[in-house]
Amino acid sequence: MRVGAALADTFLMQAQAIEKISNGDRVREHTAPTVNQRIDRMTQAELDAAVAAGSEAIARRLMRLDYEWDVDRALMVNFALAGAASLATGLLRYKRTPLFSPRRKGFLYFFGAQLGFLLWHGAVGWCPPASLFRRLGFRTQREIEAERSQLRDALSLINPG
Prior knowledge:
Blueprint: H1 2-22, H2 26-29, H3 33-53, H4 55-66, H5 71-96, H6 106-124, H7 128-135, H8 141-158
Helix pairs in contact: 1-8, 3-4, 3-8, 4-8, 5-6, 5-7
């Protein structure tokens, strides 16, 4: 019975932790509330399932969190891959244009737009691709760390010592 009451307190702390996450998390602040709520529900379902399954499931979930990509990491990989492809394609097309013809620079403009988005994300904490990645379910580092902390708290309540 004591463990059940402690777990109920842990779940109350989870709701408070979600509030604390959103303060100062620029990506989360710029994400649509429905997307944040969906991500929070998915996180809560993972927490509930792990806690209900016991300490081994919590340990497995903690290991999976170590390999989960946050939205910033996904954005940087996206910018690197798409930027390299658009720059290479743009330079190739530019080089292959006949000497006295207008230069084809379309892919180079795409590369410039990507650099602008990268700058925008660094300054403001949001850019259009961030919305896409959030809708795909990528979480912020703070959200991942909050789940990790809650799982550790639940593990310490299940296995005191």
